[in-house]
Amino acid sequence: MLENCQRYHMVLGLSALTILTILVLIIESRYAADGPRRREQQFLIENNSTCWRHEPYTVVQECHPCSEFDIVSRSLGVCIHTHYKELLRCKSGEIVTKSCDRVALIEQRNFIKFESACFVLGVLSYLVGYARDRVLSRRTYMKIERQLNRVQ
């Protein structure tokens, strides 16, 4: 079926799919950026300060997974909802444990791994298709050459 498509149509279709993919990624990233802020208000803060909401703070420990003990025993209330926690130090000196979503860096790393795997698979598919085309072309040339040699 692809043999019947003109190159112009294939490039046009591929461009349309690329543009659509980029639009979906932009829209998804905008909604994903709004999501954690909305969910953050739903988290229970058990025996924990909210100084990070109204004071400047520094991050002592980046967002990381809670231990299995904290999740199962529910000893740390911020680990119940997302299973991730972050340690902050407010300007007043108070250290606060805050619930957070999955680490953006991990998500970005997974996305880059996925894109790399897709790229490698695409390159391998192209090489296999190119090699197959060369083999078929060579067979066709040999067949034509044999037919021309019979005629003479």
Explained architecture:
The chain has 3 domains: 1-42; 44-102, Signal recognition particle alu RNA binding heterodimer, srp9/1, CATH 3.30.720.220; 104-152. The protein contains 5 helices and 3 strands, in the order ααβααββα. It has helices at residues 7-40, 51-54, 68-73, 79-82, 104-151; strands spanning 57-65, 84-90, 95-99. It has a 3-stranded antiparallel beta sheet with strand order 1-2-3. A hairpin with a 4-residue loop joins β2 (84-90) and β3 (95-99). Residues 38-47 have low confidence and may be disordered.
**How can the largest sheet be summarized?**
3 strands, antiparallel
N-end to C-end Cα span: 36 Å
Helix content class:
55-70%
Number of domains: 3
In DSSP terms (H or I, runs of 4 or more residues), the helix count works out at: 5
Radius of gyration: 28 Å
Structural class: alpha+beta
- CATH topology assignment of the largest domain: Signal recognition particle alu RNA binding heterodimer, srp9/1
Summarize the structure.
By secondary structure, the chain is an alpha+beta fold. It has five helices and three strands.
Which characteristics define this entry?
alpha+beta; 152 residues; 5 helices; 3 domains
Secondary structure blueprint with pairings:
Layout: H1 7-40, H2 51-54, E1 57-65, H3 68-73, H4 79-82, E2 84-90, E3 95-99, H5 104-151
Antiparallel strand pairs: 1-2, 2-3
GO biological process, one term: mitotic cytokinesis
Protein name: Protein JTB
Pfam family, one: JTB
